[in-house]
Amino acid sequence: MAVTAEKQTSESKSPPLPDNVEVTPVRSSADRTAFIRFPYAIYQGDPNWVPHLEMERRDFMNPKKHPFFEFGEVDFFLARREGQVVGRIAAVNNPRYNEFHGTNVGFFGLFECVNDVGVARALFDTAGGLLRAKGFTSVIGPMSYSTNGEVGTLIEGFSTPPAIMTTYNPSWYPALIEACGFTKAKDLYAWELSSSTPPPEKVARIAEKIRQREGVTVRPVDMKQFDSEVARVKAMYNAAWEKNWGFVPMTEHEFDHLARDLKQMVRPELALVAEVKGQPVGFALTVPDANEAIKAANGRLTTFGLPIGLAKLLLASRRIRRLRLILLGTVEGYRRRGLDAILYLDTLNKARELGYEGGEISWTLEDNHLVNRAIESMGGQKSKTYRVYEKPL
Questions:
Q1: Which site among 159, 207, 302, 347 is 20 to 30 Å from 124 CA-CA?
Q2: DSSP notation for 167-208
Q3: Does position 100 have pLDDT exceeding 60, yes or no?
Q4: Which residues pair with 276 in a beta bridge?
């Protein structure tokens, strides 16, 4: 249970930090390795945790390999007690967010910590102090490194593993974060939908009428024309989400980087483009939940130079029966006209044809009532809640 606002205030005034907690920047290769591998100490024995692939995390933190660093800054920190790593955090400067929203905020991300308020406060004080020194007046998070990546702290739905590209954390994190003075900025929802549950007949009938009336055609992406398809979706993505809370338009390199990563997972039949008179006006991207395979590799593709993890990943990938609907949107002028229902229905039907059991739709904003009601009308049930926090600096 999350602590109350009154509890947050009293705990934020708790005694000074213990002298034996030290927070230092990640400087060396050894520090970076410690930062990447620390979560294993937190999640040991947790059957639902899925470790990132270490190779991917190294690229994620590498300014030469991740496109965020072309415009943003990230400082990584480790907390140690008597030489033992007990926590980590990243302080994020995302100028594109502030330019787009007219704000002056910094961000925190990649937070992992033992169940100790003193350690958590040391991490947040260090990251917050750096952001304050850069002139920011508040901090929001967790975000890695923006809403285009993994977002939020899980506060409900701890009984199942995370879907691909979503967060997971111990149940004590919300209270730990709130004890350090953070309050809710926004909640995000994940929804569970079974492919065996047929959509309500009324919804299907109305969607079909809209398809005929508007002249909507839905097609899978053409993987042979991948670059041009990515360009079409890129334009629709930045147009469809521009008014959403927390949205930051992707740069060309960011979108291309994401597209390359997703290309390895995409099944063309589940990457759908809606067109009217040949003009793309909406899209839906659903991918097999690769976390089911990544978990088998336990974070490493090789052991002692042998591709043991890779073999386990490839074998497990054949058994994936769940999906995650990552993106679904329509451009201005075609919203509230039923195109989302058409894309939902076509995705659901194709998932059933391909033998998938169902999966997750995530994430949606808590106050996007139109989308949330549409998902519920299709038989979706809310399964997880993620919270984004904020705090003045």
A1: 159
A2: ----TTHHHHHHTTT-EEEEEEEEEEEETTSPPPHHHHHHHH
A3: yes
A4: 216, 279
